[in-house]
Amino acid sequence: MMKKYLTYITLLGAPLFWGQNKTIEKTAYQESWLQEKQGNEALAFDADLQLSDAEIALDKKIFQIRKQFISETEAKKVSLYNSSFTEIKPMIEKSKLFEIFQTMPKGGLLHTHSGGITDVKWVISAARKYQECYVYDQKDNDQFITGQLVFFEKGKVPNGFVSLDKKLSSDPGFEKQLQELLTLKRDNLCSYTDYWIEFEKRFKRISMLLPYRPFFKEYYLKGFQELIEDKVQHVEIRFIFDELYDFKNGKYPLTTSITDLQDVVKEIQKSDPQFSLKLIYSSFKFLDTENIDKQLEMAFELKKSFPDMITGFDLVADEAAGHSISFFEKNWIKLKELNKKYGMEMPLFLHAGESNSIFNENVLDIALLDNKRIGHGLNLIYFPKTMEQIRKQNKLVEVSPLSNQILGYVSDLRNHPARVLLSNGVQCSINSDDPSVYGYTGLSYDFWVAMVYWELDLRALKKLVFNSVNYSSLNDNEKKKAITYLNQQWNDFVQKTNQKLN
Ligand SMILES: [Zn+2]
Fold it and tell me: What pLDDT was estimated at residue 392?
């Protein structure tokens, strides 16, 4: 009998033998192979995280649901990997996975922008309630563009503007048309779009709507409610400061935006006491160094008055069109002086590497500056030394998968560069960037695509969620409370979802 066994091993190799008796030692090759596998796994961003038994059980169930979803799409011959978000959105919404993600606590949304937060359908319905809201319904010119929404005093309405409410009532197709003008979609992955031109038009269309003080408050209240509904407990906005106004008092100082937002947060906290908000003062990469100096001074002035609200500084806009980060070298030296002058730190949260080109070298600056988190960092993987430095410096990359697809940086989401970052141990979080412009609300869609296309397990998802609080700009005390709350929510989610999926 023994001899027969040995013959089997010699002829057919070890696996057959292991099946019969697991205590038998592995071959040297198998041993090396396992070491190779474990060596790779040890480098991953979530290698330090251990799942509980309940989490392991849930992970298996969720992965099974994912597997089933993939085979269903294959059976239906759905081209999942060559479809745009717009094409598969209805399918996502119907999926069991989406239902699970909607109930999953998300922690914080670390990367979003003022003007890109609240559902466009709501924006239209709320704006039409104001008699003083008008829409431009003529062809684009130097001053205004079609679909631009503006508040005017009676008798001061320029030519080409019509009452929004009257226009919506008299023209049944206009609401849909306006929705399209306020959102940016990639209908499919092949057609040509001048993404950034179209993207910036969306912001221009509501740019004069948001600073109207009564609307401003309503907008953020609704935006935060949508996020809470999607289990987001903390938000950090790249905030472009604008003077709020109304027709009774004219313009308000910049600080009014902050005090009004604090009022909105207090209102929200009556029902959701865990909710918190931070603002990252944002200016533009296309401005010159003198202007950025002024912007930095302004950011420090606001932080002096609201140290708990203003937590950092960023420069936004199309990186291909604006100045490089190193162009602002003198400003970054000035920033250090201002840190001393004001006796407070103003960390940077720069957008860098939102590009597919190696000629965009903005990620190099991130390794040199006091820059806590990186917006996008898509081309970081082409700069291996910098990628390693950023990993060692423990700086987080804010990843926005859907934004990256809609703005044309990634088509097949399986090839998103974040996968390389995650497997190399660079910390990341999941973000929605400008969900209202992309025609959705919440963070569940971004988690859905990350999980389905990047084959993430529950350990990776948990790490991404907890990163969004651990790398937030909450102060130590706030962070401690936020983590306690998130832990409770997470454990509750694991328990309930395990029960539901039994
Ligand atoms: Zn952004």
Answer: 98
Q: Is the predicted pLDDT of residue 191 greater than 50, yes or no?
A: yes
Q: How many CB atoms lie within 10 A of CB 96?
A: 13
3-state class percentages of the chain: helix first, strand second, coil last, to nearest 5 = 55, 10, 35
* pLDDT, tens digit (0-9, with 9 covering 90-100), for 430-467: 999 999 999 999 999 999 999 999 999 999 999 999 99
- 113 CA → ligand 1 middle, Å: 6
Q: What is the pLDDT of residue 22?
A: 58
Question: How many angstroms separate the alpha carbon of residue 405 from the centre of ligand 1?
Answer: 13
CA of 403 to the centre of ligand 1 (A): 8
For residue 314, the CA-to-ligand 1 centroid distance in Å is 10
Tens digit of each residue's pLDDT (9 = 90 or more) over 58-72:
999 999 999 999 999
Question: Do the beta carbons of residue 319 and residue 355 sit within 8 Å?
Answer: yes
CA distances 340 to 344, 345, 434, Å, are 7, 8, 34
Residue 155's CB is within 10 A of a number of other CB atoms, namely 5
Element (H, E) at 10: helix 2-12
The tokens describing 262, both together, are 């604090």
Model pTM score:
0.93
What contacts 241, CB < 8 A, 6 or more positions away? Answer: 254, 257, 281, 298, 302
Residue 400, classed as helix, strand or coil, is coil
Q: How far is the CA of 238 from the centre of ligand 1 (A)?
A: 8
Alpha-carbon distance 359 to 59, whole Å?
41
